[in-house]
Design a protein that fits this description.
heterodimer, A: alpha/beta, Rossmann fold, B: 15 helices, 14 strands, globular
């Protein structure tokens, strides 16, 4: 047995809290996690704050304010291993939709006196500001992938997180292809697995919440959607959701041409 | 006489969803300033919905909150269906209540046992509380898990489920699949009943305020998806008239807009208002259990909201079982509708209280405008009023204890700050 439990910290930037909630949603494992790790900083769950440095830092959320730009640097300094969790932290999240317009126009719409509120023009992933050791994708993350990462850390091995596509997952699940059988546009071919390919199993096309997989052909898929009858604007918007700013999805508008 | 000024502050409130702070300034025992600050960065949802298609809205607004995504999906689909003149009835309507039951169970037990109960017993968190109350924490986690499983059964996963759409669902469960889940729901119900007796025995601070309670009310059922907006002071309006009675204002110390009732001021939404206005609509076992613990309504003690969260959880288990017993698989998972231009309103009971959505939709289905008022925005002003009202009894306590009690008073509301900014930090000033 280790003499000291590894210290784990959970940090939050702009996000919906859904990814850190995944830890509390590990109902069967939560108390064991509390035994195996010292939960040193996790404000959503605990008042107790233990000072850094930390062995593992889990970071949820994207960087959207000048203050957060500074804060994430100090978070990095305090964490031996830094893991970005979820689409906000790995790609900028849904709030990165502002990146095409700038926040000023958006702020005016929501707040009567936008001057009170400090915000940046772009919502950006953690890796754009500091070195990140591992990224867990998803909107939300898959809690069992997080558990795998924590178990791997304790065992001193590399975590096993698959990087194949949602398409492959559908085949493994035995789900009939919606695009082939019904002509329903689906981002499965270009999206990284991890969700369990649930959307096709529920009769709807994948909407890309785990972001672009490695080596993808986005323009080709986008053209296929056009052939299936989607309007150009609809096709662009399919990629502009929770991982809109991720390279691979970000450039779709320029790449499909007119 | 020596002037004594005190400041109490908590820069990052713990055990709340999102980022907020508390600041209280006291001079010679008089409360000078109370601020419940929301500094969670704004995410500007209402702006980036513009120009998106109506069918994208439920998935986008779900991302306002990871704890209550179903609530956002529900208020949005009701609003858009209202704009299109569609009604969703029968088994599809019941299935919407069923997925909402799952979210209420998961969200209420998360708050009651992982976030709120540690305040009553003086623990920093539930993991520490579990060392001395292992059976309670384990039962709560087990029942919570059943709620999450119900959401996942209906929608593929517990956070940001994927099955809800305008008109109904992408796919509905089979009767057999739902029937097979009944043993878990029965177990959850039994666990929750004992948890209710446990929370009823907690020690509650003696504090009451003269609240205006606001909740939905429906003639036949405890409110989830539909009803008129009622208050204990005579407010009785349709969802379409919400903006005639309520207004939002921006305050410099908060990234979340503050709501108030026009011409009156703060009000409370959430479990206490719901039960005070709808107790007669609960099912038998919940009513019996509340009678057994001697729970009286109207309840004006916000610390007792934990009892109501657990009671509503018990109700949600009962209601889920009722829905499954009555369920007949619909012919199609969603109803047909025609996209048309119009304005639509939706208001449903999120675990934290009423969640109002209003959209203008163009003839081609594009969103022209969006307004979203989450429960925590509505409670913000009332939270500050509570802090002001409770301050005179708390400032006599040692500083650390007082600060904790102030935090506890905020957590009575289960504030969801991520929601409110689409928005918590606590500071208490004492010189």
């Amino acid at each position: 047995m280790r003499s000291a439990r590894p210290k784990i910290a959970v940090f939050k930037f702009a996000s919906c809290d859904g990814c850190q909630l995944s830890i509390l949603d590990l109902e069967d494992e939560l108390l064991a996690i509390g035994e195996a790790f010292e939960i040193a900083y996790f404000l959503e769950a605990s008042k107790a704050v233990v000072k850094g440095p930390y062995d593992i830092g889990l970071v949820e959320g994207s960087i959207t304010t000048p203050h957060e730009v500074e804060l994430v640097k100090s978070v990095r300094e305090q964490c031996r291993v830094l893991i970005a969790i979820g689409a906000c932290a790995t790609a900028g999240g849904i709030q990165a939709l502002r990146n095409w317009k700038g926040s000023a126009e958006f702020m005016k719409y929501v707040y009567a006196s936008p001057d009170y509120i400090e915000t940046l023009d772009k919502s950006t992933p953690i890796s754009e500001h500091v070195k990140v050791d591992l990224e867990l994708r998803g909107c939300p993350i898959n809690k069992y992938q997080l558990l795998e990462v924590m178990s791997a850390y304790l065992a001193g091995r590399a975590p096993s997180v698959p990087n194949h596509s949602v398409c492959v997952q559908c085949k493994l699940n035995g789900t009939v292809c919606l695009m082939v059988s019904q002509g329903i546009p689906c981002l499965g071919p270009v999206t990284q697995a991890g969700c369990g390919a649930i959307c096709p199993a529920y009769g709807r096309g994948c909407y890309g919440c785990y972001g672009p997989k490695e080596s993808l052909n986005t323009p080709s898929l986008a053209r296929r959607f056009l052939h299936l009858g989607s309007r150009r604007e609809e096709v662009v918007n399919m990629f502009r959701l929770f991982n809109a700013w991720a390279p691979g999805f970000r450039e779709v508008e320029e790449k499909i041409g007119d | 006489m020596v002037t004594r000024e005190k400041e109490y502050r908590v820069d990052y409130l713990a055990r709340v969803e999102g980022e907020g702070a508390l600041y209280i300034k006291v001079k010679n025992g008089e409360v000078l300033d109370v601020k419940f600050k929301v500094f969670e960065p704004p995410r500007l949802f209402e702006a980036f919905l513009l120009g998106r298609m109506y069918h994208e809205v439920p998935d986008i607004v779900a991302r306002i909150c990871g704890i209550c995504p179903v609530a956002y999906q529900m208020s949005s689909v009701h609003a858009i269906e209202h704009a299109f003149g569609v009604r969703v009835d029968g088994p599809l309507r019941d299935l919407r209540r069923l997925i909402y039951c799952g979210e209420w169970i998961g969200s209420h037990l998360l708050h009651a046992f992982l976030l709120h109960a540690p305040d009553f017993l003086g623990y920093a968190d539930a993991v520490r509380m579990a060392k001395e109350h292992p059976d309670i924490v384990k039962s709560a986690l087990k029942a919570k898990k059943i709620g999450n499983e119900l959401v996942a059964l209906m929608g593929g996963r517990e956070v940001h489920p994927v099955s809800v759409c305008v008109g109904g669902f992408y796919k509905v469960p089979t009767k057999r699949r739902l029937e097979a889940f009944k043993p878990q729901l029965k177990e959850g119900k039994a666990l929750t009943r004992s948890l209710l007796s446990w929370v009823a025995d907690l020690e509650f601070p003696s504090f009451e305020a003269d609240y205006e309670f606001v909740a939905l009310s429906h003639p036949a059922e405890y409110p989830f998806n539909e009803g008129r907006i009622l208050s204990n002071r005579g407010l009785d309006v349709a969802v379409t008239e919400y903006e005639d009675s309520f207004e939002e204002e921006q305050v410099p110390h908060s990234n979340a807009l503050h709501s108030r009732i026009k011409g009156r001021g703060s009000y409370m939404v959430g479990p206490l208002p719901r039960i005070n206005l709808n107790r007669d609509k609960l099912w038998d076992e919940t009513r019996e259990a509340l009678a057994e613990i001697g729970f009286k309504t109207p309840c004006r003690n916000p610390f007792k909201s934990i009892i109501v969260r657990v009671a509503e959880t018990l109700y949600a288990f009962e209601e889920a079982l009722r829905i499954i017993d009555d369920y007949k698989e619909p012919e199609r998972p969603r109803v047909d509708f025609e996209v048309r231009a119009g304005r639509g309103y939706g208001c449903t009971e999120a675990p934290r209280g009423i969640l109002y959505h209003r959209y203008d939709v163009a003839a081609d289905g594009k969103i022209l405008s969006a307004k979203i008022v989450p429960p925590t925005s509505q409670n913000q002003k009332r939270i500050e009023d509570d802090l002001r009202a409770i301050a005179p009894q708390l400032i006599k306590l040692p500083r650390e204890r007082a600060t904790w009690k102030f935090e506890h008073a905020i957590r009575n509301y289960d504030p969801c700050i991520s929601c409110a900014t689409h928005f918590l930090r606590l500071e208490i000033d004492e010189e």
